[in-house]
Amino acid sequence: MNRKITQTALGVLLLAGMPAVSADTLVRIGQASPLTGPISRAGKDIDNGARLAIEDLNKMGWRIGGQPVRWELVSEDDVADPRTATIVAQKLVDMKVNGVVGHETSGASIPASRIYSDAGIPQISPSATNPKYTRQGFKTTFRLVANDEQQGGAMGRFSFQTLKGKRFALIDDRSAYGQGLVAEVEKSLQGSPASVVAREYGTEKTTDWMAVLTAIRSKNPDVIVYGGMDATAAPLLQQMRRLGMKANLVLGDGACSSDMIELSGNVLDSRVYCTEAGLPADKMSKGADFYKRFKARFGVEVNIYAPYAYDAVMALAHAMKAADSTEPARYLPFLAKLKMSGVIGPVEFDPNGDIKHAAVTVKQYQSGQWKPVSVVR
């Protein structure tokens, strides 16, 4: 049968009232995180977690609004920079994405959130912990991890109650994440017999901490708390030990990673602790299966945030299915009242957009890896 006859036959069928084959509804999910730069592994971890969710959704064969749905991930690199994050956010808005997973850092998530809010596009961060992110009055902002108030409080209480810390030195990297986290640690120590003997800071790119540590060493702290990412925490630890400082080092989730182990070399020991705004894999509802599938698909272990990125995509998708619409304005109310069983456990948001029943896990470096030692809710 030649092409001309085929086209003619198709025209006859259409004129006769035969239904045309409907096209798939394309749903684009934006993903924004640092895909290059010193914390790119965290960004790629988020990207891979979101990508695995998209692949799973395409296998499910869902129909929304009566049409088959094809899911697509659109990833953008914000290099963990606030200004770049706003450019990326506007680009995703202009592409008319149906929802956004990201950004990774609080410093990027907060300025980007206004752009998504103005466009009415739901945004779920799998990792941003600064409380301000969900307290700006935007109805489009959600997060899947504990915020800094919860995490910082857990860090402070653990350091004082379990580590028996009495003299604290607090350091942050001046980012929205680092400052916010350490401020909450300091707040949690108020009213206790513990004292803050030093309060110092660097930047998100600081690798030479010798001047800061030299100033701190003379004050003889038994606990040093650092708010920042693994790329700056590793040289901080190395230089602490080089100066003979034996204090416990307590880190936030930005350094609670496999990268921290790799970057620190052989100086990591059992005096180093970190907190993770979430649950360890064996405490997640579907953690074991997810970690296994993730390794098989991408050839690397989960870093930190992949399960949360996966659930962020799934939360957006389940809200669309509940609303029977992929239009942000129509499914947003369903996202706000969503109750979903995810990889990390129950996914349900409070009126601010924070996840309910948030958990914080405290880990200790033992035998070459981070081992959970306490879960705080």
From TrEMBL:
InterPro entries linked to this entry: Leu-bd, Leu_Ile_Val-bd, Peripla_BP_I
Gene Ontology biological-process annotations: amino acid transport
Signal peptide interval: 1-23
Alphabetized UniProt keyword annotations: Amino-acid transport, Signal, Transport
Domain spans labelled Leucine-binding protein: 27-358
PANTHER family tied to this protein: AMINO ACID BINDING PROTEIN (PTHR47151:SF2), LEU/ILE/VAL-BINDING ABC TRANSPORTER SUBUNIT (PTHR47151)
Family: Belongs to the leucine-binding protein family.
Protein name per Swiss-Prot or TrEMBL: Branched-chain amino acid ABC transporter substrate-binding protein
